[in-house]
Amino acid sequence: MEEPCLVVAELQRPALVLGSTQKIEVADRVRAREHALDIVRRRSGGSSVVLVPGGHIWLDAWIPFGDPLWTDDVAAAAVPLGEAWLSTMTNLGWTDLRVHTGGAEAAPWSDLVCFAGRGPGEVITADGRKLLGLSQRRTRNWVRLQCLVHRRWSAADALAGLSLSEEQRCVAEMALRDAVAVVGAVDEAAVLDGLLAALR
Q1: What is the pLDDT of residue 76?
Q2: DSSP class of residue 89?
Q3: What is the pLDDT of residue 166?
Q4: Which end of the chain, C or N, has fewer beta carbons within 10 A?
Q5: CA-CA distances (angstroms) from residue 82 to 2, 40, 85, 112, 199?
Q6: pLDDT digits (tens, 9 = 90+) for 113-157
Q7: Triad 118, 119, 125: Cα angle to 5°
């Protein structure tokens, strides 16, 4: 890959996507099957995301070594992309957003659910909800930054395929109820155009 690019990803089937460091035991195969969730694993990120067709905008940014957006600093690498998202969403009517520029921040349940915690480059609302989730995978030649915003989200759905006791599930649902900001019916083409303009 010689040029940077943005790739739009589309889902064909619902899935519980485990993070690269999660053990398979965190998933409950029976519950996942009951909710029609395939259990798969990604090679980036630390914890799970539930994905359903039409429920998200998912873009991957591929940055080759030597590009102006390239940096060897893993945390700093995500910040310009987060700033491009912030600019784009602001132009689409969102207000009081900020980019998390520090390191990864754990929170209750973030070891299980990705959107519970915060990482560098992620976009956060004024009331502390996560709008944009980011994860990355890198080699010597390129970095792949995976970006996801939710059109709709519920804590119950995010926990549906995970192995939890009923008490844990109840506590987690309450804790995560207001963790995520959703973009609703925002136009995907407008988001892509805004990101391309901001990154240029």
Answers
A1: 93
A2: H
A3: 96
A4: C
A5: 22, 26, 5, 23, 10
A6: 999 999 999 999 999 999 999 999 999 999 999 999 999 999 999
A7: 50
pLDDT of 1 > 70? The answer is no
Burial track 157-190 (b if 16+ CB lie within 10 A, e otherwise): bbbbbbbbeeeebeebbeebeebbbbbeebebee
Cα-Cα end-to-end distance for the chain: 18
Structure tokens that stand for 51 in this block: 């994905």
pTM of the entire predicted model: 0.94
Residue 26: C-alpha distances to residues 49, 95, 108, 129, 189 (Å): 12, 36, 16, 24, 35
Q: Partners of 48 in the beta sheet?
A: 113
Residue 186 is encoded by which pair of tokens? 């925002």
pLDDT at 200 > cutoff 90: no
Give which of 89, 114, 119, 115 is closest to 102, Cα–Cα: 119
Instruction: Please tell me the distance from the alpha carbon of residue 104 to that of residue 191, in angstroms, as a whole number.
Output: 25
- Four-point Cα dihedral 53, 58, 62, 68, nearest 10: 170
- Coil/strand/helix, residue 144: strand
Q: Rounded to an integer, what distance in angstroms lies between the CA atom of residue 88 and that of residue 171?
A: 35
**CATH class of the region 5-199:** alpha beta
